[in-house]
Amino acid sequence: MATFTPFTQDELLAYFDRINYSQRDPSPSGLPAPTIENLCQLIVNHQQAIPFENLTIHYSSNHTINIEPQALYNKIVLNRRGGYCFENNGLFARVLRSLGYKLWTGAASVVLEAKVEVQDGQPTIKAPPMTHQITIVQLPTTAQDGGDSEDRQDALWLVDVGFGGQTLPAPKMLVEHEITPGVRPEQFRFTRVHLASNVRQENPPYWLLEYRYKPDSPWMSAVVFDLTERSHTDYYVANQYMSTNPESKFVKNVMMARLRRDEDGVLTRVLLLNDILKLRRDGETKLIQQFEREHERVKAIEEWFGIKLSEEDIGGMKGRSVALME
């Protein structure tokens, strides 16, 4: 594994300013303590301030995503941009580690179209290669989490601030079948599955994250993963494919998402896919705007996601399959 270089206190304070985070109970170091309460607040603040987006693939001169640690800090914190999974989760994991959280980063398969089936008597799912970065955080259980105060053990939590319109708005403890809320009235749960194979294998069960938009909606698959720690090299290879291969969904589409709190305090999701801008609130999706021209999309990106593209950035879109009329 690569050597970890923590953020300096000044860098962390700049990140907190970027996500509008106010410390409530700083530790003796002057930074927030590594607690579940602070983790929850950091996650929701991050997702409100920093969009999930793949704009660099399209709106740039080199169409290259750099996931080196300092490049992520410069882009997201200093230049106030967003990023996709390797960027958002890469930066956030480094922030958490710098604050003293025990964690490791892993990989997941995106299985949004997959169905769980029974194979050899076991729940099974067909999964593509693991091209999504996740974080597993280890925290002591509390009475609220169901732990015995005299015999507490660490619990594992999935943390993911880079999964677009289905991103978890809070950490989720790795407990099977326990339903937890997302952005109202969304729900999430874990089930254990095997990965489909042409050869019978005694592979250990994987964790499948499922979600539904409403309590009466059907469950849908999101990501499937195991608890193997992954390295920066793993993400480097996956990032190269996802950001450059013509068959990658990120190369084929302009994609953005962020959390937004309305004036009445309700948390919503703002979603952009190519020429469509939508708002998801209370389980209903509303069309905000359909773009016909490039300047309309560029304006919406600034108004709804806080990203102002330069003329050079905008020029990088010319000739691409997802470009709109000028």
TrEMBL record:
Pfam families: Acetyltransf_2
InterPro entries noted in UniProt: Arylamine_N-AcTrfase, Arylamine_NAT_domain_sf, Papain-like_cys_pep_sf
Single GO molecular function: acetyltransferase activity
Family assignment from sequence similarity: Belongs to the arylamine N-acetyltransferase family.
Protein name: Uncharacterized protein
Organism: Jimgerdemannia flammicorona
